[in-house]
Amino acid sequence: MAVLEAKDIGINFGGLRAVDAFNLSVDAHELVGLIGPNGAGKTTIFNMLTGVYQPSDGKITMNGVELNGRKCSDISKLGVARTFQNIRLFKSLSVLDNVKIGMGNQVDYGFFTGVLKLPKFFKQEKEMDEKALKLLEVFDLQDFANYKANNLPYGKQRELEIVRALASNPKVLLLDEPAAGMNPLETENLMKTIRKVRDEFEIAILLIEHDMKLVMGICEKITVLNYGKVLAHGTSEEIQNNEAVIKAYLGD
Asked: What is the pLDDT of residue 19?
């Protein structure tokens, strides 16, 4: 059974059919790429997979559980996490606090426990601090734990957003253009990091990316989107040799 699956999903915005009959299957521990030009509908698909948008038709499942109609928070608890095309950190908060915010789906003390600072509050806060620091170590960000997020270099802010997503204990991680704005060296390091995250955390990763070197270098399956419809699907080698893809996206 696929971890995350979309069957014939589509969405309308007024009279515009933004995505039509889209199918996707992501297996456990798999690294899958979703590519296409700007406006092809890639981020719209991410928004449907995470509950930001509700599909007009079709069905999305996570380990066999239907996601249609569920809130973003419920989908997060089921194991779907994401990053965004434009970095969305709490920039005035510390790096550590940004990661802890990602653990919001795991907090089980109530409002009054937090306000009154009862023992359960301190116990969970300590556990969250320890877990957050371990996650930061994966990206060599532990020395920046007390920095404000907006004081990090751009590449580190991108990494922090991935760490925050991992803090929610996902089974599937959705990365929306993780290499955007990075230089070649940062992109090379990101490729290694994505592989490391998949292997260490034993999760599946679905990513949107325009950097073809990154996509072809790490993705085991690739789906190509064109005007909201699937143009091609296959391995990196199959996609690179697909005439329709070459003509539409990769150049002759």
From this structure: 96
- CATH code of the region 1-79+170-252: 3.40.50.300
> E strands, 83-197, where?
172-176
Q: Is the pLDDT of residue 118 over 80?
A: no
User: For the whole model, what pTM was predicted?
Assistant: 0.88
Q: How far apart are CA 242 and CA 102, in angstroms?
A: 39
Which helix (H) or strand (E) segment holds residue 236: the answer is helix 236-240
Question: Using one digit for the tens of pLDDT, what is the confidence trace for 169-181?
Answer: 999 999 999 998 8
Q: Decide: residue 38, CB within 10 A, 0-12 exposed, 13-18 middle, 19+ buried.
A: exposed
Identify the helix (H) or strand (E) that includes residue 245. helix 243-245
Residue 106 pLDDT: 66
| 191 membership: H or E segment, kind and range | helix 184-201
C-alpha 137/C-alpha 225 separation (Å) is: 35
CA distances from 107 to 52, 138, 161 (A): 22, 23, 20
pLDDT value for 249: 64
Instruction: Name the nearest CA neighbour of 34 among 238, 247, 232, 188.
Output: 232
Q: Does residue 46 or residue 125 have the better pLDDT? A: 46
148 DSSP assignment: B
- For residue 51, the one-letter residue type is G
Tokens read off for 58: 């079709």
Whole-angstrom distance between the N-terminal and C-terminal Cα of the chain? 37
Collapse the DSSP code of 56 into the 3-class scheme (helix H, G, I; strand E, B; otherwise coil) and give the result: coil
Write down the domain spans for the chain. Answer: 1-79+170-252, 92-167
The pair phi, psi for residue 64, each rounded to 5°, is 85, -5
The partner residues of 16 in beta bridges, in order of sequence, read: 13
